[in-house]
Amino acid sequence: VVWETWKANAPKPDTLRFYAVDGVINDVAAPLMDYLFKRDAEPDEMGWEGRLTYGLDSDEGKALFGTPSGLAVAWLLIRNYGILGRRDLRVSIFRDEEKEEEKEKRCMIWELIPEGGKSTFDEYESRIDFVQSIAQVLPYSCLQKHKQYERLVTVLDF
């Protein structure tokens, strides 16, 4: 459903760059993510700043790709190869500190890098900071009225 919406509304559907999974609770990915957080993350680092990023050239990246969330990305790419083409993948996992229940805090973002392209995380990092700083100052109801902001948040708000 999300892909069909993207395909119908994006000026260029082949520009899809991210696939986000919020509140990872499945029995395969959740324990793996908890293990990686315990092993690799700073204990009090949460949110996007405390993210862990892995490519598919690492064992961690391959393991995350084998989870139900990773397989959904694989299926998306396989089914839509004619539109999206070949992509390199990178996954970032993080804990959303704003969620109340611990089990809902796990999030992952898959970056779909076009073949021969470069990572866009760094390019979007400054935009994300900008959007988040605006969101902290203005009430959301005010921001909802601005389509440009809404589109930016939809693409960038992890």
Gross morphology: globular
In DSSP terms, counting alpha (H) and pi (I) runs of 4 or more, how many helices?
A: 8
Tell me the helix content: 40-55%
Poorly predicted tracts of residues: 134-158
For the termini, the CA-CA separation is: 19 Å
What is the ordering of alpha helices and beta strands?
HEHEHHHEEHHH
Estimated share of beta-strand residues: 15-25%
Look at the helices and sheets and give the structural class.
alpha+beta
Question: What is the residue-averaged pLDDT?
Answer: 77
Q: What is the β-strand count?
A: 4
Largest beta-sheet characterization: 4 strands, antiparallel
Question: Would you summarize the structure shown here?
Answer:
The protein has a four-stranded antiparallel beta sheet with strand order 1-4-3-2, with helices on one face.
Question: What does this protein structure show overall?
Answer:
The structure is a single chain. With 158 residues, the protein is α+β, with helices and mostly antiparallel strands. It contains 8 helices and 4 strands. Helix 6 (121-137) packs across helix 8. The longest helix is centred in the last third of the chain and has 17 residues, at 121-137. Residues 134-158 have low confidence and may be disordered.
Sequence-ordered SSE layout with sheet pairings:
Elements: H1 2-9, E1 18-22, H2 29-40, E2 52-55, H3 59-65, H4 68-79, H5 81-84, E3 87-95, E4 106-114, H6 121-137, H7 140-143, H8 147-156
Antiparallel strand pairs: 1-4, 2-3, 3-4
Helix pairs in contact: 6-8
